[in-house]
Amino acid sequence: MNLHPTLRHSLLASALLLTTGLAGAAEPAALAKGLHQAKTYTVAAAPSEPLQMDPPALPDLSGYTAEAVQGKIERSRKGKVSVRRMLQEDALKEFIGGDNKAAEWVQRQHGIPQAIFVDDGHVDLAELSRKVPAQYLRETAPGVYLARLPIVVGRNGVLEIDGKVKELRLSQEGGAFLINDGKLFVSHTRLTGWRERDDGPATFRSPREFRPFLLSWGGTETYIVDSQVASLGYAKSKSYGVSISQYTPNMAKQKGRTEPTGWIIGSQFSDLWYGFYCYETQGFVIRDSTYRDNIVYGIDPHDRSHGLIIAGNTVHGTKKKHGIIVSREVDDSWIINNKSYDNKLSGVVIDRNSVNNVVAYNEIYRNHTDGITLYESGDNLLWGNQLINNRRHGIRVRNSVNIRLYENVAMANGLVGVYGHIKDLSDTDRDIALDPFDTKVSLIVVGGELAANGSGPLSIDSPLSVELYKVSMLAPRKSSGISLNGVLGERQDEILDLLVRQQKAVLIDPVERQTDMID
Questions:
Q1: Fold of 79-261
Q2: Is a pLDDT exceeding 90 seen at residue 30?
Q3: Which of 5, 232, 323, 482 is most exposed, with the fewest beta carbons within 10 Å of its own?
Q4: Across-strand partners of 327?
């Protein structure tokens, strides 16, 4: 991961000249105040062979193409189109069931809520508009369609919105949205939440204000290719923007529904409450797409999703939280070759017992907190990422063990290049505290470069163990030179002698841990 010399020079120069308010920010050691820290650590040379490993083998992306999506569309059986009541429809129970949920659509439709249904075969949008009354779905200009009712793709339905459709506008005033309970194909078009009153997109105004959305349920397939999606979603369950979600456990079992899946390729998403959200989803692929100026998150896979590929995307300008976050048992997934920058909090987050993920070859810069953040998620590999000029830490690891950091470049970040710490969350966040995790941290840092970070290259508090090998530390911003913080600072001379002068691997171990192992 060699940076262009001009870029390297400019970043180092800017780092050395920074006069930001971060000087007054809490130093890493203060962040762990009050927690137990081992009194004594040993520093020793360690064999380097166990630390050496080959770069991760990346998944083959060549099959995820627009042409491959076209091959998945079954058009031989013509679907059935109907307009019927939303009540008693499984795909709509989330929105029309108890707690007076139907009131939203009664008010907007001025009567008993109805929806447009596609069942038992293939229908394209132009055909759909010809089969329903114009007051529900009509062509307002050549290739431009306005839907004033929800559109539901039934369990055996296939809806195709292709290049013949310049834009599908979902009316905010009409309470329109798009539900996929079968197969949905969106390609070479625009999908927009539409505010008829303004004759323009339903741009975000308030978290609680209804905006149209797209949701796919369990057992479905959803494909979005070379399209633009804008102004969808608000702060209501399953209504976030573009969402892929399993049914409740009882309904999933009753309907025999497997985990949903699909692909997003070469598309653009802007002004969504969540740019992408998924729940209990398997094998979903997000490739070569742009997530720009979304409200809460750019890309947000959630509970018990696995086998995901998030590759080659650009995520920037997220207004409230993170660019890319996987949270709560999102396992065995790939976050590779993405750019994530200028997001309100972190560029990439691995959170809440999400394990066995590979975060590799990403460019993560100018985010307003950390570059990469790992919270309560062990057994993850970070390889070859560039973490540059983020306002706080380059990489932050909290309450996570067996975190392997290989060949990463953390440069010109406001605080520490790599910061590891523990934190007791039981009194601060009850929801997080309900998830089992240990207040332990252990790191392996091999190769890469930690340069010109505001509070030093490395700080690790209360580690279970730390292993370092061939880590380059350059251009300290402190006049005192390279300064290691946390427990590393106490044995800095020994660590640097082994690591730099002798070119050996270094193992930092707490004496208490060694005693426990002997006992």
A1: Pectate Lyase C-like (2.160.20)
A2: no
A3: 5
A4: 351
